[in-house]
Write a structure and sequence with these properties.
- About 50% of the residues lie in helices and about 10% in strands.
- The protein is α/β, with parallel strands linked by helices.
- About 25% of the residues are buried.
């Protein structure tokens, strides 16, 4: 027997208009077709954006009198203006990143920290070196990860693990991945530069639009005090200082490489490869501070020195101090980013006291960056660097003019006196002059190189060219006077 309820429902349906019955019947197929059209339109837009973003290139400028690479490095590297190519490049990254996010979102697991400050998925990249990678949430559409932190902690130190947890809120707020090496990969302290080198090479193996731009190294004895201060506060302004690849600080022992930002590029690879190989190629060099001293020696060399600036130590290498006592410029103040404890005999005890303070999240320490001394200090610091570059550029122009005048004078004197000096002496003069001419033509020549080449050319000029016209019968005072006039 048919249910009266079902019979009643069937009768009600016969009372509905035919157009409504038709719509109800085909509703699901219409919705499906609409969604399909939307997906197809979105796919076409994404594909066009992806293709266009790979077909634009930036242009370079040239400055009168000095090669463009030299001017760019002195005045601040890349001076290009915003362009359609740059915008589409950002679109390319955003589209790639969003698609990757959609594909992997269902498989990403969340791992909550013990302090419940932040939630990061934890991944082991390479089990042979036990590397822990704490990744923040994916960046918003159109954004990219610019900065990541890296450190080494192994040996089961509870105080270092506790210090590492102070970074978690900072990383969550600003989207910084944190790379932690959990196993030694070289002897003694040399795992540090080796690990940095491995991270640099890993990033450079990625497409450019997906790479990190900076690595921010932190030693394991650092405690983060103010999570509201971004690492970008201390990075060189772009594009004026795009040629600055490393920001360092110093204390009374020289370089302090406990905390520093380094740009992800080939220059950094060459520097850290040289640090790792330092003991092999300079076995007789005494390294009191081991990898730190090797790095200090290398960054003073001409090939690296031009791309480094020295920042105030307190910015990111502050030492502990209490405001009730007499404070030194290198000691931490309220609102500062972090504090470091290098070389302290009772380090664990002192670190524990500071950790007790940090874990209370006191408002007088966790200050908005706008209420700290960092913004005015940064503006003043980079203004000073800008003035220094302008002065350096003026000096370079002057040295180049002096070099060209010296080359012209020597050429003239060789034409007059060459027959009166030996061929060997004339050849030596020509060799020194050629070195100076090549430096004048070289892109990126520095002042010191030009000055050294000028000094060597002046020396052989006096020894040989002047000898041809007037044998060296001049007294030492007269010769010194004439030397100063050249």
């Amino acid at each position: 027997m048919e249910s009266p309820i079902l019979s009643h429902q069937a009768d009600d349906r016969t009372l509905l208009p035919s157009w409504l019955l038709h719509r109800t019947k085909h509703q699901m197929s219409t919705v499906s077709n609409g969604r399909l059209r939307l997906v197809l339109i979105a796919s076409v837009c994404i594909t066009l954006g992806y293709i266009l973003s790979t077909s634009f290139a930036t242009t370079e400028s040239h400055v009168q009198g000095i090669p463009s690479e030299t001017i760019d490095r002195i005045k601040g590297g890349n001076s290009s203006k915003p362009s359609l190519g740059h915008a589409l490049n950002d679109l390319h990254y955003a589209v790639s990143d969003k698609l990757s996010n959609l594909l992997t979102s269902s498989s990403r697991s969340q791992n909550t920290s013990a302090s419940n400050i932040c939630t990061f998925p934890s991944t082991t990249i390479n089990s042979s070196i036990s590397e822990e990678v704490l990744l923040p949430d994916r960046p918003a559409l159109g954004e990219r990860l610019r900065v990541a932190k890296c450190t080494i902690i192994f040996g089961g130190s509870a105080i270092y693990e506790r210090a590492l947890q102070t970074h978690e809120q900072h990383d969550r707020l600003h989207g910084y991945p944190l790379y932690v090496l959990r196993h030694s990969i070289m002897d003694d302290v040399w795992s540090k530069p080796a690990y940095i080198l491995s991270l640099l090479l890993r990033e450079l193996s990625k497409p450019e639009e997906q790479r990190l731009q900076w690595l921010f190294w932190v030693d394991s004895d650092t405690v983060l005090l103010n999570p509201k201060v971004r690492i970008e506060t201390f990075l060189p302004p772009s594009p004026e200082f795009d040629d600055v690849h490393l920001v360092i600080s110093r204390d009374w022992n020289g370089l302090n490489n406990g905390v520093f930002p380094v740009r992800v590029n080939q220059w950094a690879v060459e520097l850290f490869a040289a640090i790792v190989a330092f003991r092999t190629f300079r076995p007789d060099e005494k390294l009191t501070f081991r990898d730190q001293q090797a790095m200090d020696l290398l960054i003073k060399e001409r090939r690296f020195a031009a791309n480094i600036v020295e920042a105030p130590q307190r910015w990111f290498n502050a030492y502990p101090g209490e405001e009730k006592d007499m404070m030194f410029p290198f000691q931490v103040r309220r609102g500062d980013l972090l504090v470091q404890f290098p070389g302290m005999m009772n380090r664990d005890e002192v670190m524990a006291k500071w950790l007790d303070r940090v874990e209370q999240h006191l408002p007088e320490w966790e200050v908005d960056v706008g209420h700290t001394t960092y913004p005015p200090e940064a503006r003043e610091f980079w203004a000073q660097q800008r003035e220094l570059r302008e002065n350096t550029l003026m000096t370079l122009v002057d040295v180049r003019n002096q070099s060209m005048k010296l080359v012209s004078r020597v050429e003239s004197e060789l034409g007059e006196y060459r027959s009166k000096i030996t061929e060997r002496k004339a050849t030596e003069v020509l060799e020194k002059m050629t070195v100076l001419e090549e430096l004048l033509d070289k892109k990126g020549s520095v002042i010191e190189e030009l000055q050294d080449a000028m000094a060597e050319l002046r020396l052989v000029r006096y020894r040989y060219v002047r000898e041809g016209g007037s044998p060296l019968t001049l007294g030492p005072k007269r010769l010194q006077y004439r030397s100063s006039r050249l």
